[in-house]
Amino acid sequence: YVTLPSNGQNMFYWLVESQNNPSTDPIVLWLNGGPGCSSLGGLFTELGPFVVKSDLTLGRNPYSWNRKANIVFLESPAGVGYSSPLLSDDEYNDVTTTERAYEFLSEFFQLYENYQNRDFFITGESYAGVYIPFLVARLLEQPLKNANLKGFAIGNPFTDSAIDGTSTFDYLYSHAMVSIEVYDSIQKHCPYDILAMCLASRGCTNECAMELVRGYSEANEVALNPYNIYGDVCLLPPDQSVLVAPHNIRPLNRGVIGPCQSKFMTMYLNLAQVQEAIHANASSSTEWANCNMDVTNLYDRVLSALPKYQTIITSGLKSMIYSGDTDAVVNFMGTERWIARLNLSIESPWKAWFGPDKQLAGYTQEYTNLTFTTVKGAGHMVAATRPLHALYMFECFIYGNKLCNTFTYPHDDLEVLTGAIGPESSSSNDWQYYLTGAIVLVLAVVIAVVVFRYIKARQKRAYVAV
User: Fold this and answer.
1) Could you give the C-alpha distances from 49 to 10, 64, 180, 431, in angstroms and in order?
2) Using CA atoms, how far apart are residues 345 and 217, in angstroms rounded to an integer?
3) What are phi and psi of 460, to 5 degrees?
4) Rounded to an integer, what distance in angstroms lies between the CA atom of residue 56 and that of residue 79?
5) What CATH topology corresponds to 2-156+260-413?
6) What does the domain layout of the chain look like in residue ranges?
7) How would DSSP label each residue in 198-260?
8) Which of 114, 139, 310, 382 is deepest in the core (most CB within 10 A)?
9) What's the rounded Cα separation, in Å, for the pair 236 and 263?
C-alpha cells in the first residue's frame, strides 16, 4: 500500500519488475476502468506475467508486457479491490480520482528513487479513457519532480458518452446482431441528441426507449460477451471452484487467457494465504472483487474527456489510442468519431500493420502527436485475445518501430499452420501434448505385449503330457 498524506486512504498497487533490465527499462502505470474495477484484472487476465489456472495455481504468460518494462498496476479509486476505505459519494468523481492518483504517483516516486527520471508512460483501458486524459493533463499542469512523463496509451477508451454511446447500434447492426427493421426504427425514433440523453439516462423519450429495449433484446447481449462478441462466455456454475478437465487445454484464441480467467482470478485473490503474501490484509481478511458496484453506482462521471486533449495534443507527448475491433461496448466506430472531432492533421494515412507472425494485425493512422490503431480480432481486453499483436504494439509504442523490430517474440503452433515458421521454431506447449500422447501409446503397447506373454506362459504351464 501507499498511504496518501491528504486523507490517509490506502492505495494498493502491484509493481512488476521488467524481465529484461529493471534498473534501466521504462516505468509504466496501468489503470483499468469501470469506474470501480481493479487493475489487478489487467495483471491476471490480460498483460501481466502470471495467469491463474483452474486449480488456482499460477502459470506464466509468455506475452506479458513486463518483458521490457516495469509496470505498476494501481487499484484506483479507494474502495476498488484492496484499496480502502469506501469513500463518501461526493468523493467519487473524476476530479477527486485524478487528485488521488496524482498524489499516489508523487508518493511512489519518492518511495522508489530508482525509478526517478526514468521514461514514464501511463496506460490503461475502458473508463481509463477518462482517468488517463485527466491525469495526464494534471501532470502537464503541475509536473511531478523526477517523473519523466513521455506518453500514454489507452485501449478501447470510453471518452465521450454521446459519441461513444450513439455508435453502439451502428456497431451491432454492422455485425449482424440486430435486424435492419429495428436498426432503421432506432434511426427514426432516436436522433443523435435524444439517443445521447437516453444512453446517459437523462431525459429519454418513450419512443426511443422502447426501440432501444427492442434492439438490446434482439442482440441478446446477456447470452454473449459484449466485450468480445466472437469469444465464448464462462459457463462454470457459481458453486464449481475448478475445472474437471485438464487445465492445459489452450483457449480458442491465441495465448493463455480463457473465458473463465476472471473467475479463477477472483477466487485466487480471496485466498487467505495469497492476501497475506501480497500484504493485502494488514488487519483482517479482505473480500476482493474485480469490480466494486458500490463505487460504480456512486461514481459521478463526466460526459466527455475531450476537452483535456486540447492541452495534451499540444504538449508533444507520444500518444496512442487503440481499439480491439470485436468490442461492442466501447467500439472502434465511436473512437474514430471522437478522434475526428479533434481536427488533427493526418501525418500518415490509414494502412494495415503486421505483427511479428507476419499476419495482418489491424490498421493504423497517424495524426499530429496521436496514433490510432485497431487490433484485428481483439476484444475490449486487447491483450487477452490477441496477446502477440498487443505485446508487439505496446513495445513498438514504448521503444519505437525500428527498435521493436529487432526484438525476439514468442512463436506458437498457429504460425506453423500458416507456414510463417517451421515446426522446430514453435515455442508452443503443444509438443508436450504430442509427446505425452506418444508416451501413452508406447506404454500401452508394452503393457499389451507383457500381458500377452504372461497369458501364453500360463497356458503353456497348464498343458498335461499325454
Assistant:
1) 25, 5, 44, 22
2) 40
3) -65, -40
4) 25
5) Rossmann fold (3.40.50)
6) 2-156+260-413, 178-219, 438-465
7) HHTTSS--HHHHHHHHHHHHHHTGGGS-TTSTTSPPP---TT--S-SS-TTPPPSSSSS--TT
8) 382
9) 9
Which residues on neighbouring strands pair with residue 283, listed in sequence order? Answer: none
Q: Which of 115, 148, 156 is nearest to 381 (CA)?
A: 156
**If you count them, how many residues does the chain have?**
466
In angstroms, the CA 432 to CA 266 distance is: 29
In the structure grid, which three cell numbers stand for residue 61, read together? Answer: 504468460
**Residues 340-376: pLDDT tens digits?**
999 999 999 999 999 999 999 999 999 999 999 999 9
Check if the beta carbon of residue 156 is closer than 8 Å to that of residue 127. Answer: no
Contact 167/175 with Cβ under 8 angstroms? Answer: no
H-run or E-run covering 42: helix 40-42
The whole-angstrom separation of Cα 195 and Cα 357 is: 42
Q: Is 119 helix (H, G, I), strand (E, B) or coil?
A: strand
Residue ranges of the chain with pLDDT lower than 50?
246, 430-438, 440, 461-466
Q: How far apart, in whole angstroms, are the C-alpha atoms of residue 350 and residue 225?
A: 29
Residue 238 Rama label (left phi>0; alpha psi -120 to 50; beta)? alpha
Contact (Cβ atoms closer than 8 angstroms) between residue 194 and residue 162 = no
Runs of H (alpha helix) within 116-249: 128-141, 161-166, 168-174, 180-189, 192-199, 206-219
**pLDDT tens per residue, range 412-438:** 777 878 887 777 666 555 444 444 444
CA distance 17 to 22: 6
Q: Which residues are catalytic?
A: 126, 327, 380
